[in-house]
TrEMBL record:
Annotated catalysed reactions: L-glutamate = D-glutamate
Leader sequence residues: none
Family: Belongs to the aspartate/glutamate racemases family.
A GO MF label: glutamate racemase activity
EC number of the protein: 5.1.1.3
Name of the featured protein: Glutamate racemase
Gene for this chain: murI
Root EC class: isomerase
Pathway(s) of this molecule: Cell wall biogenesis; peptidoglycan biosynthesis
Keywords: Cell shape, Cell wall biogenesis/degradation, Isomerase, Peptidoglycan synthesis
Location of the active site: C70 (proton donor/acceptor), C182 (proton donor/acceptor)
Top-rank taxon: Bacteria
Residue ranges that the Swiss-Prot or TrEMBL entry lists as coiled coil: none
Length: 263
């Protein structure tokens, strides 16, 4: 049996990358709902239907667990998905709690970067309220980074001007930790680090999600001796063309390079 990963596009590969490091002998299905990317800019109920359609497909592929490798999808659908399906379903959410702890030690603020839909969801708002006792958490949607990632545009010549413009509303010296609250954003860690400075920690939830996946598989005695094989799907169609598969492999290589910046 395999492990499923779902995202609206290629962002979830950043979470799959962590799973491959922690669980290299598992086999995987990665489902990118490219017909409906981005999720974070669409109405909630519309996105919810896309998610359930995708998970219906994944559930028929003999999976033993599913990772919702998208902060937006997690925030609006993970609880309802768990009620419908009988295999473990893991989500990912912005790593606000460790960021607040880290920045309080530094006497600095936290900046959460995510999609509009994630930031306005009650799940995120309640998370911040429960731990932000000193009012140090700020947030900012960065839909342009999702678009850059889906266009395989990672050059600093394009990315840095966008980031400078979007972040210009803040005094960046006030922040000690930046949270990447969208799985598309880890592709841009080096650009963000260049802009923020080396003293600012950049964190995301992918490592914690991968470790939680391993824990659940161990508890259920479902660890595999697989080959690390990955089957890619785009909105229900299996990806078989060599160009796309090569691009996905390049993304994993890019994340190997970026991972040195992960806290």
């Amino acid at each position: 049996m395999r492990i499923g990963f779902l995202d609206s596009g290629i962002g979830g590969i950043t979470v799959l990358h962590q799973a491959l490091k922690i669980l290299p002998n598992e086999d995987y299905i990665f489902y990118a709902d490219t017909l409906h990317v981005p999720y974070g800019e669409k109405p909630k109920e519309e996105v919810k239907q896309y998610i359930f359609n995708a998970v219906d497909f994944i559930a028929d592929q003999d999976v033993k667990a599913l990772v919702i490798a998208c902060n937006t999808a997690t925030s609006i659908a993970v609880e309802d998905l768990r009620k419908k399906y009988d295999f473990p379903i893991l989500g990912i959410e912005p790593a606000v709690k460790p960021a607040v702890q880290n920045s309080e030690e530094k006497r600095k603020k936290v900046l959460v970067l995510a999609t509009k839909l994630t930031l306005k969801e009650e799940k995120f708002q309640n998370l911040v309220k429960s731990i932000d006792n000193h009012d140090i958490v700020e947030s900012l949607p960065l839909p342009g980074l999702v678009q850059f990632a889906e266009e395989f545009e990672f050059s600093e010549e394009k990315v840095l001007p966008y980031l400078r413009q979007q972040l210009s509303i803040f005094d960046l010296k006030q922040f000690g930790t930046v949270v990447l609250g969208c799985t598309h954003f880890p592709y841009f860690k080096s650009s963000l680090q260049k802009l923020l400075g080396e003293d600012v920690d950049i964190i995301d939830g992918s490592v914690g999600t991968a470790k939680n996946l391993k824990r659940i598989l161990e508890e259920n005695n479902q660890m595999n001796n697989g080959t690390g094989n990955i089957s890619f799907f785009k909105s229900g169609d299996k990806v078989e063309d060599e160009t796309t598969l090569s691009n996905y492999k390049k993304l994993l290589a890019l994340l190997d390079k970026e991972s040195s910046l992960t806290k």
